[in-house]
Amino acid sequence: MSFIADPVTFIINWLSSVLSGWGIADMWVQFIMFVLGAGILAFGAMIFTIGLIWVERKLGGRVQDRIGPNRVGPWGIFQTIADMLKIFTKELITPTGADSTLFNLAPILAMASVLGLWAVIPLSPTVFGTNIDVGILYLIGVGALGELGIILAGLSSNNKYALVGGFRAVAQLISYEVPFAIALLIPVMFSGSMGLNDIVASQKVAFIFQAPVAALVFFIASIAENGRAPFDLIEADSEIVAGFNIEYSGLKFGMYYVADFLHAFTSAMIFASLFLGGWRGPGAELYPILGFVYLFIKTAAVYLLTVTIRFTVPRLRIDQMMAFNWKYLTPLALATLLVTAIVDKAAPAGQGLIRILLLWAANAALFFVTDRIVTIFRRNREKERKVVSEPRPVPIAVRPLPASESEVNS
Amino acid sequence: MPHEWLYLLIFLVISLFIPAFAIGMAALLSPKKPSPLKNSIYECGIETVGSSRIQFKAQYYLYALLFLVFDVETVFLYPFAVAYNQVLFFGVVEVVLFVLILAAGLAYAWRAGALEWV
After folding, report:
1. Which among B29, B38, B54 has CB closest to A164?
2. Residues A126, A209: one domain?
3. pTM here?
């Protein structure tokens, strides 16, 4: 029963006992277990991306009314492996005048920042990388390392377009860090701790039911942080000639591609842990393997939603993106924070139904008020535009001929 | 050293090592035939004109400044969020005032045109 209920912990305990049986000191046993665990988790995340790319291509194809790849293997499942093998054998071109140290470091940093996020996410009640008590700050910080990779790519390729693409990408990414970090304050407030294990453990009622507007703000900000559609100006093929990764070829470009897909899945996993209850579900404490299944189902639902949004919504321009962030999303995030803080303090203690209903009412009122403000703002702007663009009355240059003169003179 | 942070260090080193190893393997497997044409800088198919270090637009600096202000504000708000369950209502009022002061800063930047993408 122990192996079926919790295979990972069973294997960890067995391996530790084997290593101690060989006479290795306790400290070194722990070190070896850490290295093995970290290696398997990071490597597994990278290998998992192969399946993710396949899912995205098939689902994207269906949304666009076509079948995705279906030639290489049944239902095209080996397509990604074939692409991987191809990209491993492409020539790695370094352009003249490029700073080769930074040029090579940038894709490594972009990938490392996404892999590093997997260390703190609780995959099941007993399986997690590490239980640090500042998990949220770690997520924000390590997630921001990827931006360093992008600006290094832009600066070190000796290319104007890469530089401008890098600037715009980093401007977008740091702008969307603000509502990202503010929306993350709400689960921390509800659970009283920044550690992800504590946040998941304190979600008797999932936080999305207690703070829906904050969940929405976090969802939008995490899609924008990831750089996928509709915010994918920084890497789209038709924008500024593929942006900061113009000069990259072969696997270095492939690293950015893989990091993009893995980041989407990791963002979905973080959303599922913070707002949907993570590994919580019926029977998850007794049988930890069920916790992993629940987390996977919730993450898959959020990930499929992200992929559908990518293939449905058109791309935003950079000025629209910035205006959306600074003039709508950040004030909304701040307002949500204030409203949630006030209402939660004013409501009766405990996780009772009254508190949840009050929070729902406050969030609905906030959403309604924001909608009204945006409608009034948009109506004012359309009125301005209509006033400007109405045609001025133009005097008729030629008088119309009276009817008698239009007869043909015979 | 506490065990959690040691694991994190090992994990970060491994996650730096795995893409480096993958790129190293690709460097071994790929052909190396550099030529002046292949290594030249891309500029939509024509010869490059002018220096590739173009001017940095000041608008990016304004966005970075706004990000800095709001990020520091968020960092100040995290201890409040962690201690939220033990804070009295008076503390919440204080934080509301703090956020409103910074929101006034955002409103000023908005009216002064600092948020327009030039």
Report:
1. B54
2. yes
3. 0.89
